[in-house]
């Protein structure tokens, strides 16, 4: 829970959701282990109120460590918005894209043949753009012709 949620009266906002998202990021990079797994709830609440948050686990990209540091601040007014958080995550994601498949050219050829199968024989309108009542794959048409 965010620090403002631990006070009376409890306060919740989109900024508490941002805080919770950072907790979830911690758990993802910590193989599902929660912060302070063995501590009693009172001790955890005190740590959160004082903003004594755990360090992000080893192997966490630097950009995400910096992002959680921006999120884990006591005053919600200084936390990023969810939109800003998404922008930062998207920028980090672009940096860590997986390499293309080994047989990349072959994959493009397979995709091309699959796309060409989506075209109807009778007209030049792609099947996915026609009304749903006309959606039929070539396999469905063949099955109907066999009946």
Q: Could you explain how this protein is built, in words?
A:
With 147 residues, the protein is mainly alpha-helical. It has two domains: 3-95, Transferase(Phosphotransferase) domain 1 (Transferase(Phosphotransferase), domain 1); 112-146, no CATH class. It contains six helices and no strands. The longest helix has 16 residues, at 14-29. The radius of gyration is 25 Å and the shape is elongated.
pLDDT < 50 runs, ≥5 residues: 122-135
Remind me, CATH topology of the largest domain? Transferase(Phosphotransferase), domain 1
CATH superfamily grouping of the largest domain:
Transferase(Phosphotransferase) domain 1
Question: How does CATH name the architecture of the largest domain?
Answer: Orthogonal Bundle
SSE sequence, one letter per element: HHHHHH
Distance between the termini: 61 Å
- How many structural domains in the coordinates? 2
Domain Protein kinase: 1-93
GO cellular component, one term: receptor complex
Organism: Angiostrongylus cantonensis (Rat lungworm)
InterPro entries: Kinase-like_dom_sf, Prot_kinase_dom, RTK, Ser-Thr/Tyr_kinase_cat_dom
Features:
mainly alpha; Transferase(Phosphotransferase), domain 1; elongated
Per-chain topology:
Blueprint: H1 14-29, H2 41-49, H3 62-71, H4 82-95, H5 104-117, H6 138-146
Nutshell version of this structure?
This protein has 147 residues and is mostly helical.
